[in-house]
Write a structure and sequence with these properties.
two-stranded antiparallel ribbon; six-stranded parallel sheet; homodimer
Chain lengths: 383, 383
């Protein structure tokens, strides 16, 4: 096992009716910037619950944070935060709203050009406190330090993370997800699944607990994912999926083990160039990346096949193949495409655009930190 | 799934060489009370590493915290803390030292009779900050709010917990455990195992992720426990066991599910009356408690048998029996007795003494909160 530090101070308040606890969780007598997305919270009752719980606090609203939240949009909020001296940010929505709000929190106190936080890894030394009400299980943003932000003018999608950006609390009420469109639930299941794979499908590292904890999440997604997609108001199924999404990216399963994130690296570019949903890109890249990297990942893939899909009596390479086929079939069972052609995108075009960008950045990535534009092109041609 | 709040702000610094990080973790320019146990840390090099990392901080030492830490001992430390105005407590040792130090932290700021914290659940509203260097994986005390304290004069062993008692950090260096006597490693494995069972072997609650996370820890203990007992200096095995012990009682596997703790309730009294090691009492009580409560626990026990020991093709009741037999055999494989007679204690005497105490306290316990002195007597007669 590798040395590691595990630290996660976010308070998670889970269950039906828990939005009412905002009154105790949000500091009293401070102005609050309430951030949200396209307005669905005003249709499903979440907005009313939040406003009721906040009582007579001074609340400034900033709606319209889009999927793949845009730097241009978020900088408008930063301006408001500075002008109105908001002391607390309350994000109500899914991972995009949370990610965007983390960036507002960091940029609101950043001296200098905030884009540097993303483009130059400029250090974040402070952030406005953030809390969240999560309405879409997927990104794990509710219990980690990370955020991914897009910039339209340059077709870039970049990530940052800072311990100052841990939410102080996140409220997870599964009933707020009952009205989600099936496509978003599907995306959330796939996103969660790929988060686990990024931390699991690496070279082996003799960390059986982390392995088994990752397999636990994958098993739950396989068992509960298709069910909750078909039965959106089944409370326990939705709760189990919601909790699995948080556990997938809160640092537990990555403690002391290698991580990959090559699928995300390539997927982010696919969103930046073609506008595909984040999860859609992951479902395309993951199977082909695993096939391409099979010689280096087959021990873990074979273990997954044996433990999760009861694949038996096969040699390692064949069991690994079976795991990849099962993963792709699982995505299909959720009505999730796994090929660029299904979006009318030419793999050769993607290989060129994304490969050129990695070449320009001289990117190195993957669990061995040795994949380059060359491998990205090879993988993308198979997508 | 039940509603829950999960909050665990302890920073865990894991791996070989990590004691050196104390210099960044312990506040500078504050007087530190360094607490420890019987002095093994002065023989295995841990003390020297700690002192070197603390540099020129003012350090007051308080050694001699015994297994099942005693109120009488700890109150001596409370007196020192108050006199010397220690601002930070650094516990170096196993669960007893950590538990004792948490009590010192709470009692040091408590107005009134500190025994009330244990005997009357008096509220702890503040505590001196605590950090720890863990040298014995077992109790999970390094990442939770709990402490169990004994009082010799009254033969009592009582627990308390307060969010103010979360360690600010815990350092877990597996190499510090290489020199542990095999009996203590055995005890730590059994203690960890029973912690998981207290949170798992209950009535079912449709929480498959928590179930699988608990099964993950049990599988690791079964696989790594006997190996690390025989190979004390195998780093990865010791690291895997150490991390499993922390994960067993940090609140993750109990989130949103029923809990039992009847084995601990009865076991604590066994230690109080007869002086058995904590883990020794658990190994005696658990199998008989599971047999007694089988009708209400058999669904989870059968699940465990099927998933962990590959028991197949059996009806639920028989699979549950198999699980209990496997558990008892696992304890035996660690050279851990499972009967009172092996300690020359008469079960009838234990049933009378412990049953009388529960009757006097009108105790109700277990995952249905309906076990009483009657069931305790029945279980103990089988021990």
């Amino acid at each position: 096992m590798n040395n590691f530090t595990y630290f996660n101070p976010t308070r998670l308040v889970f269950g039906k009716g828990s939005i009412a606890q905002l009154n105790e969780l949000v500091p009293a007598e401070q102005s609050v910037l309430l951030t949200y997305g396209g307005g669905s919270i005003k249709k499903n009752g979440v907005y009313e619950q939040v406003k009721a719980a906040l009582g007579d606090r001074e609340v400034i609203e900033f709606g319209g944070i889009e999927a793949n939240p845009r730097y241009e949009t978020l900088m408008q909020a930063v301006k408001i935060v500075r002008e109105k001296q908001a002391r607390f940010l309350l994000a109500v929505g899914g991972g995009s709203v949370l990610d965007g709000t983390k960036f507002i929190a960091a940029a609101g106190r950043f001296e200098g050009e905030p884009w540097d936080i993303l483009s130059k890894n400029a250090e974040v030394t402070s952030a406005i406190p953030v809390g969240s009400v999560l309405t879409l299980p997927a990104t794990g943003s509710e219990a980690n330090t990370f955020a991914v932000i897009s910039r339209n003018s340059t077709q870039e999608k970049l990530a940052f993370g800072s311990p100052h950006c841990f939410p102080k609390f996140s409220i997870l009420d599964p009933t707020t997800t009952f009205s989600l469109p099936p496509k978003q639930v599907r995306n959330g299941i796939v996103d969660t699944f790929v988060h686990v794979m990024e931390q699991y499908a690496t070279f082996p590292s003799d960390a059986p607990l982390q392995d088994a904890q990752a397999e636990a999440i994958i098993s739950v997604l396989i068992e509960q994912g298709p069910f909750t997609l078909k039965n959106p108001t089944d409370y326990n199924a939705r709760a189990n999926f919601m909790w699995a999404a948080t556990q997938a990216l809160n640092g537990v399963i990555s403690a002391g083990v290698p991580q990959d994130w090559a699928t995300h690296m390539i997927g982010h570019e696919m969103t930046a160039f073609y506008g595909l949903d984040h999860a859609e890109t992951l479902a395309i890249v993951l199977p082909q990346l695993l096939r391409h990297q099979k010689p280096r990942k087959q021990l873990k893939l074979a273990q997954l096949a044996r433990r999760v899909w009861d694949v038996s009596d096969l040699e390692t390479a064949k069991a690994a193949d079976a795991a990849i086929d099962h993963i792709e079939a699982f995505f299909h069972s959720l009505n999730m495409p796994t090929r660029l052609a299904e979006y009318k995108i030419d793999p050769a075009d993607a290989a060129k655009k994304i490969g050129d960008r990695f070449a320009q950045r001289n990117s190195k990535f993957g669990d061995h930190a040795d994949l380059t534009e060359k491998e990205a092109r090879e993988i993308l041609l198979k997508c």
